[in-house]
Design brief:
80 residues, mainly alpha, 41% helix, 0% strand
Length: 80
Amino acid sequence: MPNHVTNIIEIKGNPARIKALFEAVKSDEYGLGSIDFNKLIPMPPELGIEEGSQTKRGLKAYKDFIEVYTFRPCLKNSKG
């Protein structure tokens, strides 16, 4: 599931300091006008959860476990 977020920030003050602020926090990928929040507060490594084949295998194993130990075969047909 996508996690799209848009933030609108209004900053007032000395134009030179505002430009320096935006230069310091800009995303290396998107450039000036974007903000890389990891430059403000780095994301903890514990939250670096991978999305991919390992996640899908883990969810399948969990669903199979629940089906066997709770006798709920309806989960086998659910998407995810």
